[in-house]
Amino acid sequence: MRDKRRYILVKIVPPWSSPGTKDLFLVIQEAVTSALGDVSASCIQMAVVHASGEFAVVRCNRGSEKMLEQALAAVFCLGSEPLALRPVATSGTIRSLKEKIAHAARGPCQKKEAVAYKGKLYDAYCYPGQKIDLLEKGFKSRELLFLTEEDIEDK
Amino acid sequence: MSLNRAMSEAGGLGFDGIVAIGQQCTGTGTPRVIEGILVRDQQVKAVVRAARDTADGRALLIVNAGDNGFNRAALQVKGVHILRHLHKTEKNSFDHIMARMAADRIVAIDLDVRPLVMTRGGQRQKTIQRYRDILRLMRRFEFPVSVSSNARNPAELKSVREMVSLLAMAGMEESEVIEGLKTPGMLMAPRGPVSVVR
Could you give the CA distance from residue A112 to residue A17 in angstroms, rounded to a whole number? Predict the structure, then answer.
């Protein structure tokens, strides 16, 4: 008999990181296993069914949504960069969550642009709410700053 | 993360106030910023000095916990609001005597969600065990408990829903988490007798 499923809409923070479904699956699976153990992880049957822009849809078995949310809150990085997955809504269908994405999306993240700040060169990601994320240009141990337009103007 | 950005992110998550270490207190605007003074030194002298500096009640005095003797002395200093990082200390550093002392003096014990997110395996199990012990004492002696994210970037800032999920690992109820989020505001404006303002 087919299992009943639930779908959790998660918001990806920071939005410009936009990880792929495979990366998301691996990072969530690690969080589920470490927080809840292999037995609970097998009961949850987690899968990432959709990921684009600042939202992703994660699937689980019905009744295990709370456990999955607990594990999602324990995700903190992808590789060397910070990542958070914030649960927004839970539904029985992917369609209704995609409708929610259409309502909640703040528009596409603008393309990165080069900015000089305090004598260093950064890639700047600007998005609604006057928020600016600055990622230092380079290869190793790049500095990441989270600012607002006001902070940049004060400088 | 700049203060402006922290305010913007916290406001987006529905918080009406944040505690920022070493930042000026702003009474107006949303979210409200409460100035926090953090004492990292494990010396009572440093705590007393900080308490004297914040005697006007403009800032929240937060002390990093240490061993049993230091914690007991810190709890007795008038003006200390929050004792935090008990999960990093020995098991006997906070017992039922100090729990009663914290309840009498209205000093909150902070539960930080950061180690629940950032650590794995034995380290996280130890933290969860310590939080369970603190919560058991809190339910018996009714001292205030505060809940913090200790965030350094927007990804580490947690929503109320996430905090409830994370602290459920340590057996904390949703109502207790919500009370814990209100604690810094309560400590800054403690309930007292009604006074007539002319």
Answer: 12
